[in-house]
Specification:
By secondary structure, the chain is an alpha+beta fold. The protein has 6 helices and 6 strands. The strands form 2 sheets. The protein has a 3-stranded antiparallel beta sheet with strand order 1-4-5. A 3-stranded mixed beta sheet has the order 2-6-3, with no helix packed on it.
């Protein structure tokens, strides 16, 4: 019973001095009058300076996180673009071969040798299909409005009809896309 009474007395004493208990003061400090309450608080300007620095650090941290997120998005986008256009140099070199095949096909149209015609046409179609599977597609230019972002004007000639003014009349060299990105601009003749 005595222990119970002692605990109750201690609890009552704590309740009577809540401020001292909350501040972590012991009985000696409260009796002597030397408490933390009597000491001057840390300099108010110093506290304000620390708060400002903390705010600046938080702002810098948020900006760095946002910067890093943007970097991750940009590098992912660049990596996807690189994968899509990885063979661009080889494909651009093959475009000249396609041009030669088209010229050969036009010349073979006048030939009487059917076997040679079929063989060359078969090889040419196979090459076009392989490139198409890799994302290469020819640019449609004839009778389209001249667009300096896609076309390179070689020359201007008088338009045969009024509605062909400012449009592509002839194509000197075909333009090509690789996964919807221009890899070769079309060289065209424009009507004026």
């Amino acid at each position: 019973m005595r222990q119970k009474d002692m605990k109750e007395a201690q609890e009552q004493a704590k309740m009577q001095q809540p401020e001292e208990a909350e501040l972590g003061l012991n009985a000696d400090e409260s009796m002597s009058g030397t408490s933390h309450l009597n000491e001057p608080l840390a300099n108010e300007p110093e506290i304000e300076t620390l708060r400002n620095e903390l705010g600046e650090m938080k702002d810098k941290f948020i900006r760095k996180v946002a910067e890093f997120e943007n970097f991750k998005k940009r590098s992912t986008r660049e990596r996807i673009e690189l994968i899509q256009t990885a063979g661009k140099d080889v494909i651009v070199d093959l475009l000249e071969v396609i041009d030669d095949c088209e010229r050969a096909e036009k010349q073979l149209a006048n030939s009487d040798d059917i076997k040679v015609k079929e063989g060359v046409t078969l090889v040419f179609n196979k090459l076009k299909n392989v490139l198409a599977a890799k994302g290469v597609k020819p640019m449609e230019t004839i009778k389209q409005d001249f667009d300096p972002d896609k076309h390179e004007a070689i020359t201007e000639i008088p338009a045969p009809t009024e509605d062909m003014k400012g449009k592509v009349i002839d194509e000197v060299q075909k333009g090509y896309y690789l996964n919807d990105k221009i890899i070769r601009y079309a060289k065209v003749v424009v009507g004026k």
